[in-house]
Amino acid sequence: NVQLHGDHYVHAHVSHQFSTRNDAPRKRRAWVNCPEGHGLLPSTTPRAGFSCDKCHSTMAEDSKMHSCRACNWDVCSNCYDGRDPAWLSWDRPKPRGGPLESSSSTLIARARQYSSFVLLMGTLNAADEFNPTNALVMRNKDEVKIPLILSTIPTPKEFQRKISSLSKEQQAFANAYRKMQLAGTLFAVATIQIKPNLERLLNLPPDALTKEVTLCENLMRLFVEYQIPSDLLSYSGDYKLAPARMRIASVKKNVANIDKMLDEAKQAELELQRQEEMARRLQAEVERMQKEKESMSVALNSLGGFDGATWDGYAAECDFEAENCAMACEAECWDDDDGDDDELCAELCELDDGEMDDAPTGTAEEVSNEPSPATNESPEPAADRQDQQSEAQPQESHDSSESAHASSSGDKADVSVIDYTALPHRLNANFDSLDVFDSLRPTKIAAAEQWSKTEKDGVMSKEKTRVLDSENQRAERVKAFDLLDALSRSGALPLEGCTLHVVVAATHCFDRSLMDTLVRDNINPIARAESSEVIVAKTLHDVDDARTLVQPQCIPRLEEFSRHLIPQ
């Protein structure tokens, strides 16, 4: 469940055929207020280190700010001008020519209980190439909130005016830099479902892991935490003839064997730590007794000394005492964890006596030819044989569909690919030709530096929210890429259950505030914003007549205020 939240300007009454928005009313927020609508009061920073919640700049000591103490929200004087808010845009109005930045939009991703997917964010390098820059593994009611930084670039007409006085070489460089900026206005979000790719990786039929919740959790743990190769977990027999129950039982046995191996490795490490601790304590005790012997020798020599026989007997007694102390330390080290060892042995014995012994091994032909214990006792009912045949038949159809999919995917000439990388350039061209008011600015989208993630350690545990900085983001990205590498066998298998969301942004900017635009300039801001939205909709839907985009009752207003968008 991926959602994009953010304040948006007033839109035209778009026809239901092209509308994708929720009809619920949006709350108007004024930039002179905090996000919760409280008024801002002037304040002065008592010391350096305070930051503006709007532009994220660090303030010096005795800097003027406007604050809301109820929400702990502060803005600097540059982000606050005391005028009426222009809530029709993504950001507050500034003089024409200056870049605008805003972090009012947030990307929110959630995962349901016992479900998992990989969230990827990045850019599109080509029509068929996605370049992920950030990645997260979402599972078991995880929720991540990613603030999006929106920054505008000049309009096409404004850009041409500014470079008109430059030389040809400088104009060529400026145009190339403009193309790079337009590429940054395209933001892509991809989601990859984990369960369908796990089933294909382990040679299981579709939807085989739907009700195997425990097996899915164990597989995720082995792949994410231990990076276990998939060859050690997948079904290695002839999966075309084996029924679904046999393959699932084989995978369960492989998972149990890997868990047993990991438990043995942990016990070996614990045993090594016990031996190292015992050696350290023995060495410390020997050194203590040696120092005591030396100090006693010095004390006896100062008092006149003993004869040789008396001193040799005392030294032997000290050595015997040290040996007994070392043996006591060794026994104490071994006795501390007797209860844990007994519990672990009981768990392993229970695991060995459980479903691992019931899982079949070998190929499907060997298992089918060998008589089972149930067959020796009583003949197998005909209904059970029919169930096994019915379980094998869907897999054969699934394999045939997979081969058909592979053959169709091999012929790339018949596959039509939409080139979304050309969309920013098409928008820029339409802004130049259709935006007669020169108000639409392409907007770059980038993820903020800090995210917030809410997760649960267990089913009964409480939710915990933590901040993901650059280091945590890098760790999450490495974990997600390792999982994708395992699911695809290092790129040998194509991924299934993938969706790609492409986001492109544009900002309608006003030279003045809302009231100044309405009173001083005598301009209807709603009509201007509607005209800008129709321009964007014409480009996205590739429609010539704008009247097909709006509802019938809104066509007269469109003809009155946006006649230049209707073909004559």
Can you give me a brief rundown of this structure?
With 568 residues, the chain is α+β, with helices and mostly antiparallel strands.
Architecture overview:
This protein has 568 residues and is an alpha+beta fold. It is built from 16 helices and 13 strands. It has helices spanning 156-163, 168-183, 194-201, 213-225, 244-302, 308-335, 338-353, 355-358, 364-369, 373-377, 382-410, 423-434, 470-487, 514-519, 525-541, 555-561; strands at 2-5, 41-44, 64-68, 73-76, 101-110, 116-126, 129-139, 143-152, 186-193, 440-447, 451-455, 464-468, 498-508. Strands 1, 5, 6, 7, 8, 9, 10, 11, 12 and 13 form a ten-stranded antiparallel beta sheet that branches. Strands 2-3-4 form a three-stranded antiparallel beta sheet, with no helix packed on it. α5 runs antiparallel to α6 and α12 (423-434) packs across α15 (525-541). It is extended. The model is unreliable at 1-14, 20-31, 82-98, 329-341 and 344-414 (pLDDT under 50).
